[in-house]
Backbone:
């Protein structure tokens, strides 16, 4: 579903004194989107659910060690994340979310609001259950948490030269987590974590290093016990980065 939203342009023919004037294009507006449509320009000082939806999609465009709060408040951190997103995709980096920014986001997401390079089927294997049930939080919460992880990974993927990222583990129920030997406090049971395999191209150290500027607070890689064949990324309230071999 590599869909691309199309910007709409209106043309107005003017006639003055019986002479046809030149067609004048109206200002560009972002096209409607089947996942979510923004209906206003957003900038510093704005607040609301539409700001929160924007924050989810730019959560991976933060500075080194920063985590973007999804709080519906368009403050300096959100403005900076929007600027980095805009710059990363060749847009005018003014930190104001308007039609061009929205159209770029629309082009990056599918109808279920997941980014185009990731899907729920990659994250909800759950030891073969193909669901988000049985974790530490409700299935709806786990699904929403994973959606944020996906958007952070979409940013990470782009920063790594658009090289694919292979998901080897996403959400786990409590029983699945125990079966695979996961930590009893694993973020996987909340839908807040993903493990990235090595089959796609970026090295472990490249993924681990770049993840530090994609909004993740938990990043584990080579040299950390049981992490020599993948990189673990997750969202939590405190930082825990370990990769002794990087």
Residues:
């Amino acid at each position: 579903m590599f869909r691309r939203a199309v910007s709409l342009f209106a043309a107005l023919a003017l006639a003055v004194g019986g002479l046809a004037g030149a067609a004048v294009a109206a200002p560009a507006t972002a096209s409607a989107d089947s996942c979510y449509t923004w209906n206003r320009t957003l900038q510093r000082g704005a607040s609301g659910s539409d700001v929160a939806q924007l924050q989810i999609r730019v959560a991976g465009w933060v500075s080194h060690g920063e985590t973007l709060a999804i709080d519906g408040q368009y403050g300096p951190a959100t403005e900076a994340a929007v600027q980095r997103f805009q710059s990363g995709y060749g847009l005018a980096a003014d930190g104001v979310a308007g039609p061009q920014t929205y159209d770029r986001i629309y082009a990056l997401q599918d109808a279920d609001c997941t980014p185009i390079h990731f899907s729920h089927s990659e994250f909800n294997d759950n030891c073969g259950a193909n669901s988000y049930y049985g974790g530490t939080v409700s299935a709806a919460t786990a699904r929403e948490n994973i959606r944020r992880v996906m958007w952070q990974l979409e940013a990470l993927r782009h920063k790594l030269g658009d090289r694919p990222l292979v998901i080897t583990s996403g959400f786990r129920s409590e029983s699945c987590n125990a079966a695979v030997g996961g930590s009893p406090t694993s973020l996987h049971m909340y839908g807040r974590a993903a493990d990235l395999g090595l089959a796609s191209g970026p090295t472990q150290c490249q993924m681990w290093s770049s993840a530090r500027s994609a909004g993740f607070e938990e990043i584990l890689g080579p040299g950390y016990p049981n992490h020599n064949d993948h990189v673990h990324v997750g969202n939590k309230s405190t930082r825990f980065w370990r990769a002794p071999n990087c």
About this structure: The radius of gyration is 20 Å. Residues 139-159 form the longest helix (21 residues). The CA atoms of residues 143 and 185 lie 18 Å apart.
